[in-house]
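=== RUN LOG ===
request id: a7f3
mode: sequence -> structure
chains: 1
length: 75
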Amino acid sequence: MKTRLKIAFVILQLFVFSSIVKAQPPDPPGDPAAGGDPIGGGAPIAPGTGILLVLTSIYGTLKVKKLYSWKKIMD
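=== RESULT ===
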């Protein structure tokens, strides 16, 4: 009996929360084509992406180097 009550409670919560939560926020007021900032704001992403690519390539190189040095010790 308790397990059926728990299952019913979980299903009820899923229905209630799915009706409350929305997948997308409402559209912003105003027309972005009217000369304002583009949708999503005007923040540049190119410098951050470049820095991220450089750091991840350095991290990957160090990991591969450590892996190969570990294999040399084991051989």
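=== NOTES ===
The longest helix spans residues 46-74.
The chain has a mean pLDDT of 77.
=== END ===
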